[in-house]
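Marked as duplicate of an earlier ticket. Keeping the data here for the record.
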Amino acid sequence: MKLDVIKLDAGKAGSIDLDDAIFGLEPRADILHRVVRWQRAKAQAGTHKVKTKSEVSYSTRKIYKQKGTGGARHGSRKAPIFRKGGVYKGPTPRSHAHDLPKKVRALGLKHALSAKAQAGALTILDAADMAEAKTAMLVRAARELGWKRVLVIDGAELNDNFVRAAANIEGIDVLPSMGANVYDILKRDQLVITKAGVEALEARLK
């Protein structure tokens, strides 16, 4: 697959050949779904907690005598049957993460990249470099390029000025190549990868 390479000023900077084994696959929704589920489950805090019978604050005195009342037998008011009593088998802090084979994760990333390429939402940028961390300059460039909800993937090292300028703009996110993931790619309307990012991704996924 061949794509044009552009500069931040919207000028052309030649073209690049993309590996069809990474950018030319037929996207599979089932693989993308599995990887996104794995990512979101791993990110879930799992800090939900309720108080059990042993944790609620109440007296443990027997609330009324065992026999002769005509009602059920009860002891402590902490029992789950009573209002403000402890919760029986409620949620406790735990990890929601589950395993997913590395090959499936890598395949999911390939399919996410291919999905953007197939949809025409993939742009190759010559370099995500700026001489100064000027947000106004990046806003102007993004407007000219038609970037609204965009993810920029660079090589192993990010340009500090570009990152600082992008941090002030809603809708532009920047990641190094090792941070590229299925969820963030699919979440944005446009995917922008620098030439260094393409080389790093192809080296990572081959």
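See parent ticket for discussion. The first helix runs from residue 20 to 23.
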